[in-house]
Structure formats: C-alpha cells, structure tokens
Amino acid sequence: MAYAYDDQNIFARILRGEIPNKTVLETEHTLAFEDIRPQAPVHVLVIPKGAYVTYDHFCESASDAELVDFNRAVAAVCRQMGVTADAGEGCRFISNAGEHGVQEVPHFHLHVLGGRAMGRMLQKVD
User: Fold this and answer.
1) Known active-site residue 109
2) pLDDT tens, N- to C-terminus, the chain (126 residues)
3) How far is CA 88 from CA 13, 23, 47, 59, 116, in A?
C-alpha cells in the first residue's frame, strides 16, 4: 500500500514557514517544537522534514541519514527539556497512526511528554 501524503496538513505548512511555531530544536532533517495544546509541562512534537505519514512509513521509507538524525534529535530534545531517565524522571513518547491510533495530523510526529507522572497509557485488561 502506498501512503498518501497531504501536503496541506498543518505540519507541512509549519515546515514551509506558513504557520509559526515555538522551535525547540531544528536539524537538517528534523524539526521539534512546542505543542500548542500541551498535555504535560513538557510537550514537544518532533517531526521529520520529509513527507512521511506514520512511524512505520518513516521507518520503511526514510533514508539512513533521516532515521539517524530524527532519533538523535529526539535524544537532544529530551536532554534539552530535562526529561531523560538518567537526569530527570523520564518521559513518554507517543506516535499515533491511522484511524484506530487516533492520528489527527497525517504527518508522522512523535510526542515527547514529561515533567509529571503520566499514569497508565491504557487500562489494564485482565
């Protein structure tokens, strides 16, 4: 299946400079910025600059340089925001994909949330 990328999504528009953002970190292949509706004291979105719809799409189609850059950028954001497990109390990473994953923007993005206890992500099923 080919992924259909909508180049009018809000993150594509942010990448083109059409919509302002509060940049936390920018690299050659990655942009990290504060979420406009934060769900935790630290809530940063990390996005690749390439046209990838979901995490699996990114992992399957991105170049090695994009993959490495993105992952190193996530680590840098965690360190910069003080939410690493070694220096702080840790964080949560969330990436939603597709309808069942409740993905709201069709551009791969990773939420970095921290600064408080997150609680369980899903209810335990016995």
Assistant:
1) yes
2) 578 899 999 999 999 999 999 999 999 999 999 999 999 999 999 999 999 999 999 999 999 999 999 999 999 999 999 999 997 789 999 999 988 888 999 999 999 999 998 888 766 666
3) 33, 22, 23, 28, 10
Q: What's the pTM? A: 0.92
Out of 43, 57, 109, 111, pick the active-site residue. 109
Residue 14 contacts residue 68 (beta carbons within 8 Å): no
Q: How far apart are the C-alpha atoms of 119 and 114, rounded to whole Å?
A: 11
The secondary structure of 5-24, three-state, reads: CCCCCHHHHHHCCCCCCCEE
Q: How many CB atoms lie within 10 A of CB 76?
A: 16
